[in-house]
Design brief:
By secondary structure, this protein is an alpha/beta fold. Helix content is 36%, strand content 14%. The structure holds S-adenosylmethionine (SAM), 6-(5-methyl-2-OXO-imidazolidin-4-yl)-hexanoic acid and iron/sulfur cluster (SF4).
Length: 332
Amino acid sequence: MADASALPPEIRHDWSVAEVEALFALPFNDLVFRAQTVHRAHFPANQVQLSTLLSIKTGGCPEDCAYCPQAARYDTGVEAQKLMAVQTVLAEAKRAKESGASRYCMGAAWREPKDRDLDAICDMVQGVKALGMETCMTLGMLTAAQAQRLSDAGLDYYNHNIDTSPDYYTQIITTRTLQERLDTLEHVREAGMKVCCGGIVGMGEGASDRAGMLMTLANLPAHPESVPINMLVQVHGTPLDGTQKLDPLDFVRTIAVARIMMPRSMVRLSAGREEMSDELQALCFLAGANSIFAGPKLLTTPNPGRDHDSQLFQRLGIEPMPLESTPTHAHG
Ligand code: SAM
Ligand code: DTB
Ligand code: SF4
C-alpha cells in the first residue's frame, strides 16, 4: 500500500468506532449532504454503473449462512444444480453486454472452489473478457494459488463479503470464520485483483453492528474498489425469514456512511431493490450509491426488470456509467 502521508486526507484506514457512530448519528440531511459532497468530489454526479449477475452454480451449499437461500440445510425450494457449461455462461454474458452491462459477475454456491473446477471457471473469465466486459467472480474462499490462477486468467474483481460486524458475525455464520474471509481477501489482493467486499443489513443487527461492519471494511489495508451494501432479501425457509425489517432511512444512512468512509470506492446498492420504492432508491443514489445489479434476477431471487430501471434512470437523469470511467484505483 502507498505511504499513508501521501494519500489525500479523506482516504483513511484508521476509523474509530466513536467516529463512525458519530457519522451515523448526524441529522439525516447533514449526513446525506456530506455523502453527496464526497461523491461529487470523486465521481460523475449522475452516473451509475451496471453489473449483471449470473448464478453459474446454484444451491446445495454446505455452509450455514443464515440469510442464504442456497444453503443445502435450509428448505427454501432452491434446486441444487451443477456448474453451468462455459458456452451457456458466454451466451448469457453476451445478452447482458447488449443490455448495457459493463461488468459481468458470476456466483457459485460453494464453500470454496475445487481445483478441478478452475479450468472451466478460467475459460469463463477469458470468454467474458473477450466480449469486452469486466469480470467478477464470487466462489467462496480461495487459497493463494487459486487466487493467482484466477488473476492470471484475467479476472478483474473477486467478490467476498464480510457480511456483518465482527461482533454479530457468529449469529449469522458458524461454518467459516471472519478471519478466513479476511485471509481470502488478502489472497485476492496479493494476486493483483480488485476487491469487491461489503455486507448485508436488515439481519436483526444493531446500529453499532452497521458501524462495525463499515469500520472493518474501511480499515482494511486498502479500501475495496467495490462495496456492495445488500438489504436482506428474506427467503422462506432460511433462519432470518421473518426478521424485523430495517427502517429504510437507516439503510440510506448505511450507504451514506460507506460513501464518506470509502470515497473512491464504487458503493453498490445491491440486493433488496425489488422491495424498495423508486423514492428510496433515489435517496440511496443521493447518499452516494453509484452501482447496481441490473436484470430481473440476482442469484436466485428477483430484481427489478431492465425497463423499470431505465425508466427510473430517466426520471432521475442518471446515465449508465461507461466502462472506461469505472475507477482503476479506489484504494489509494
Ligand atoms: N458462496 C459464495 C460466498 O458466500 O462467498 C458466493 C456467493 S454468496 C450468495 C454472495 C453473497 O450474497 C453473500 O456473501 C451475501 O452477502 C449475499 N447474499 C446471499 N443471500 C442473500 C440474501 N438473502 N439477501 C441479501 N444478500 C444475500
Ligand atoms: C453481493 O454482495 N450481492 C450479490 C453478489 N454479491 C453476489 C448476491 C445477492 C444475492 C441475493 C440472494 C439471491 O438472489 O440468492
Ligand atoms: Fe453458501 Fe455463499 Fe450461501 Fe453462504 S452465502 S450458504 S457460502 S452460497
